[in-house]
Amino acid sequence: MSGTTAPAHRSVLPDEDATRALGRALAALLRAGDLVVLTGGLGAGKTTLTQGIGAGLHVRGPVLSPTFTIARVQPPLPREDGSTGPALVHVDAYRLGSLEEVDALDLEAGLDESVTVVEWGAGWVEPLASDRLEVELVRPRGAESGPLDPQDAAAGARVALVRGVGERWAGVVLPGEPVAG
């Protein structure tokens, strides 16, 4: 990691609505040129969080998992005041097997004009930007074996750890409770 790393902030996400709400809160902080790197196991809520980011950025939807298409560009819609925000570039790096495949996506080309969210991006996309937002989604204990039923409150809540890396995030108040250490 280069530059400054802000302390992580922790949010408990009891359901999909809370996960989308965190995404909307993050979208309020995001601007063109920002890179968001999402990590977490299968079914941890990466796409659900990205749906919230898309809603907060007011992009044309629906925001769907780009697992098989690898990347989707969601253009911005005009806001009530007539302005538009950045487009959302939503990438799923799960099926990528090499840095050459990441380079072939040419994510740098639109990075300055868009918010780029990369699921499964840790270890692959950090060279794209020294400033980035890292979000780790942790599933409840015992849920690693398969998808959770979002309606099953007894399954437990997911936890999101949000960390800003680089000068861009210095002094930015992230959603959630600060994590000591």
UniProtKB/TrEMBL annotation:
Record-level Gene Ontology MF annotations: ATP binding; metal ion binding
Instruction: Tell me the domain of life.
Output: Bacteria
Keyword terms of this UniProt record: ATP-binding, Cytoplasm, Magnesium, Metal-binding, Nucleotide-binding, tRNA processing
Tell me if Nucleotide-binding is a UniProt keyword of this record.
yes
Cellular location(s): Cytoplasm
Which GO CC annotations does the UniProt entry carry?
cytoplasm
Concerning Gene3D superfamilies, the annotation shows: P-loop containing nucleotide triphosphate hydrolases
One biological process term from GO is: tRNA threonylcarbamoyladenosine modification
| Record-stated family | Belongs to the TsaE family.
Role, per record:
Required for the formation of a threonylcarbamoyl group on adenosine at position 37 (t(6)A37) in tRNAs that read codons beginning with adenine. Is involved in the transfer of the threonylcarbamoyl moiety of threonylcarbamoyl-AMP (TC-AMP) to the N6 group of A37, together with TsaD and TsaB. TsaE seems to play an indirect role in the t(6)A biosynthesis pathway, possibly in regulating the core enzymatic function of TsaD.
- Put simply, this protein is called tRNA threonylcarbamoyladenosine biosynthesis protein TsaE
Q: What lineage is this protein's organism placed in?
A: Bacteria, Bacillati, Actinomycetota, Actinomycetes, Micrococcales
